[in-house]
Structure formats: C-alpha cells, structure tokens
Amino acid sequence: xxxxxxxxxxxxxxLDVQISLDSCLSELVDITAPNPPFEDELTxxxxxxxxxxxxxxPDHATKPFHKxxxxxxxxxxxxxxxxxxxxxxxxxxxDIFHHLLASIQDDQCPLLLAHIESVVMGIVNEVDDxxxxxxxxxxxxxxxx
Length: 145
Prior knowledge:
With 145 residues, the chain is an all-alpha fold. The chain is 70% helix and 0% strand.
C-alpha cells in the first residue's frame, strides 16, 4: 500500500489529475482520523502535497477550485491538521497558516472563509506558546491582525 500511496503523491504535470488524486487521498484521512493514515514519513509527504493544493484556494474561478475546496472541507470536517501537532510537523502547520492567510480575499466564497476561520482558530487553540507567538507575528505581518 505504501508504494501505491507514494506513487499517488508524485506531483503530476496535469494539475487536474494531481488535485483529483489529492482529493481521493484526503478521503483516506477522513476514514482513519484521528489516527494518521500512513507511517510518519508518508503522512508527512501526504500533508505536504495536500497543503500545497491550498495554494490555489484564492483562485475560485478555476476548474480545480471545487476539488481544492472539497479537500479543504475534508480537513476541516475531521480536524486532520491536529495530526500534524501529534507528529511534530510544525513546519507544515506554518505552511497551512500561510496558505490560508494568503487565500483571504474580499470576494472569496463565504463558505471558504468560514472554513479558514475554523482551521486558523483550531490551530491557535492547539499550538504551544512558542509556536503561538510565531503565528501571531505572522498574522500581524500579513496585515490580518
């Protein structure tokens, strides 16, 4: 199974294929939550790919937006970002935080904004003091504070 998942996590040239695979893999997280779906390193790679798909969230006019939104909704539904704290993947937590802050736009989908708020608040509630200070600094630097 690990080889299959590793192959699916390969970055495909066709963005639509990659986002579709990411969507399927996010369903595995739904099924296995609150436990990580794979061994630690594969889980880390999975979340790296998943988080990179959030880069396109501000682009709500593109074809893969709805698939990206589905992936993000899946993460919100099961609070899978909590696994990142359990596995000590703080850099990925910071990546999520940055991508979500960058996704905030005046004309953004209200559902997406509600999900972003949910994840950001969930992260803030889970982090230790040192990481919280860094997140607050990041929030102030982004102009959202």
